[in-house]
Amino acid sequence: MPIDVTLPGGLTLALAPDLILIGGAMVLMLWSAWRPDSASHQRSVGIGALVVTVITTAAVIWFAVFVLLRVGFVALTLLTHGHPDHAEGAARFAELTGTKVRALDPALRLGDEGLGAGDVITTGGLELRVVSTPGHTADSLCFHLPADRAVLTGDTVLGRGTTVVAHPDGRLGDYLDSLRRLRSLSVDDGVHTVLPGHGPVLEDAQGAVEFYLTHRAMRLAQVETSVENGLRTPGEIVAHVYADVDRSLWPAAELSVRAQLDYLREHGLIV
Length: 271
What we know:
Layout: E1 3-6, E2 12-15, H1 24-34, H2 41-47, E3 51-52, H3 60-71, E4 76-78, H4 84-87, H5 90-97, E5 101-102, E6 120-123, E7 126-132, E8 141-145, E9 150-154, H6 172-188, E10 193-196, H7 205-228, H8 234-241, H9 250-266
Parallel strand pairs: 3-4, 4-5, 9-10
Antiparallel strand pairs: 1-2, 6-7, 7-8, 8-9
């Protein structure tokens, strides 16, 4: 059940797994802290630690005040990647809560510590394992929570729809490798829950990743066929392949098409 919190000025935050404003681990830790049957209940509430992985500028000040009053203190601020809807408010939030900001990209860090594949972070009895998942962006990371059999995916896997490969920073080959890495987490490490940066929690991690891989293969085949049929520009291909998609999404789709064209050229499938 969502936790509705009304802040001064009438702003209401629905603190629940499908929260778009905050997303990612912020949702997980708030949910864990107040859900009685959570495996993280005692360690997060008893010690009062909170880990934040994604936060925007919206309501940063009021949210920081609320977190400090309700939970006690913030232990860490982590970033899944550098897109503004995930990182723009991190510096201000860190200032208000007295934390450092850790990220893969040095330009986004506040403090000496970064994040990298294989890092293991422990705080307040919680363990997070950093998983390198480039593709959506070059600096995209996911966070594996073994005790919860869950993975925080930022924008690598969404709760609704599919993810843009944000060309030229994002690369399709990297993204496919990252999806396979997440599939391995579900098959080999027992991860069953996806906690995305946007949209609701997904309880079938393997199914979600398999769907993404199938979708990417389908789109790649459609783009390749479009080129074979004489379409040349990304705009022409988007209008053909994404004809049934809302036009407001076409600019994002064009980024993915550009990434797909690069991938096809790199593998010698088109010239």
